[in-house]
Structures are given as structure tokens and as C-alpha cells.
Design goal:
By secondary structure, the protein is an alpha+beta fold. The chain has 10 helices and 9 strands. It folds into 3 domains: about 35 residues, no CATH class; about 120 residues, Alpha-Beta Plaits (2-Layer Sandwich); about 45 residues. Strands 6-7-5-8-9 form a 5-stranded antiparallel beta sheet, sandwiched between helices. The protein has a two-stranded antiparallel ribbon with strand order 1-2. The protein has a two-stranded antiparallel sheet with strand order 3-4.
Length: about 220
């Protein structure tokens, strides 16, 4: 037997769970010592977070430290009509899910108490709700975000929230205004422009989905 493993051969293992009079081993012996097994609950959380990372077009990471349960419930209610969702997650599980979803650029923001806000609808609507709640609560603090898969800063989340909503932008396109987003992009700082190009592409896609040709297809 490997000497490293032999030194850690303790029986019973250091972590056990008793359910219904039966002992369940919660750690396994690996090279270098005992390794904790993921519980079914943790596996379910990681699976849900992974799905949310993959489905959302905007993921905002915020510090919720000091936020009351009632305030958090109110925040959830505000996000729901905009197809937004907030999840409180342990950073270790969030990192595993981000890696599984190929969203590792979010990892630098996963420090301290973490609230993850996922936008499944219009990212502008969700950004408006988050920034508005951060101002009114004076507690929630945005750390950063992913727009699609591109990392953006807290300041860029504020820039995103300042844009017109999806319905307004589509109305401008229908009204024949030429490239309204280009005017917005022109007044933004250079680091924000790449974010706007992503958003513009997204809006173009949403616009195409509403055309008769897209419907017929």
C-alpha cells in the first residue's frame, strides 16, 4: 500500500451520517487523505446553477450581506415579471456550476456572500430592476456580471440598465429609425462598446424572430 494512503487509513472514516439507524459514509479515501463526497442536495444545487448559467443571457453577481429575508423576498417578486431569478449560493458550488457551464469568467466575482441574478428574458429589464433595488436598499452591491458569456463590470451593468427596454428598441426599429443603438454606443466609453455590440446582436436576433419570415419558418 502507498505510504501516503497508509498514513490516512483510519476506520471508520472521519465523517459519517446516520439515517434510519444506518451509517452512510460521506467521505472516500483517495491519494492524500479523505475526500468529502457530494451530497444529493449539493449535486441538485450544482445542476440547477449550471442550467441557469447556460440559459441566462445576463448573470449578475451581487453581495447581499445585510439584506433581510423580507427584502430578499421582495427582490424576488420584482424580478419575476421580467423573467429574472435570484439564487443565494455557496461560492464553491457556484464555481463548480460555472465551470460546467463554461462561464468561468464569472469566478473572480465569487467571493463573500453571493447572490446570483439570472435574466432569462430581456437583460435590460433585469439590469434595471437590480440596479434600482441596489439604490433603494442601499445594501445590495453589484460586483460584476456576464452578458451572454462576456464579463462586464458593475459600471457596465449600470450602463446596460440605462438603455431603453426591449419593446422600446423594437418600436424604434419598426418606426424606421436608423441604427438607434449606434448613437448610444457612440457616447459610451470604449470598454463598454464591446458590451453594446453583444447587446445589439441580441436585439437584432429578437427583431428577426418577430418578422413574418421568421414566424413562417
Amino acid at each position: 500500500m502507498n505510504s501516503t494512503v497508509a498514513r490516512h487509513c483510519q476506520f471508520p472514516p472521519p465523517s459519517l451520517a446516520r439515517r434510519g439507524g444506518v451509517l452512510f459514509v460521506r467521505e472516500v479515501l483517495e491519494e492524500g487523505g479523505w475526500t468529502t463526497l457530494p451530497t444529493p442536495r449539493k449535486e441538485a444545487i450544482v445542476a440547477e446553477l449550471t442550467d441557469s448559467f447556460q440559459r441566462s443571457n445576463l448573470t449578475i453577481v451581487a453581495d447581499y450581506r445585510g439584506l433581510s429575508v423580507a427584502a430578499l423576498q421582495d427582490f424576488r417578486k420584482q424580478l419575476s415579471p421580467a423573467q429574472g431569478q435570484v439564487m443565494i449560493a455557496k461560492n464553491t458550488l457556484a464555481r463548480i456550476a460555472a465551470k460546467a457551464a463554461d462561464r468561468t469568467d464569472i469566478e473572480p466575482n465569487l467571493e463573500g456572500p453571493t447572490a446570483l441574478v439570472f435574466a432569462y428574458g430581456d437583460p435590460v429589464d433585469t439590469a434595471k430592476i437590480v440596479t434600482g433595488f441596489a439604490r433603494s436598499s442601499r445594501i445590495l452591491t453589484v460586483r460584476g456580471a456576464l452578458l451572454e458569456s462576456q464579463p462586464i463590470s458593475a459600471d457596465q451593468v449600470n450602463e446596460l440598465a440605462s438603455l431603453p427596454a426591449r419593446d422600446v428598441l423594437l418600436g424604434q426599429m419598426v418606426g424606421g429609425l436608423s441604427s438607434p443603438l449606434y448613437g448610444i454606443v457612440g457616447v459610451l466609453a470604449a470598454p463598454v462598446r464591446s458590451v453594446m455590440y453583444v447587446l445589439q446582436a441580441r436585439m437584432a436576433q429578437l427583431g428577426d424572430e418577430g418578422t413574418p419570415e421568421a414566424v413562417a419558418a
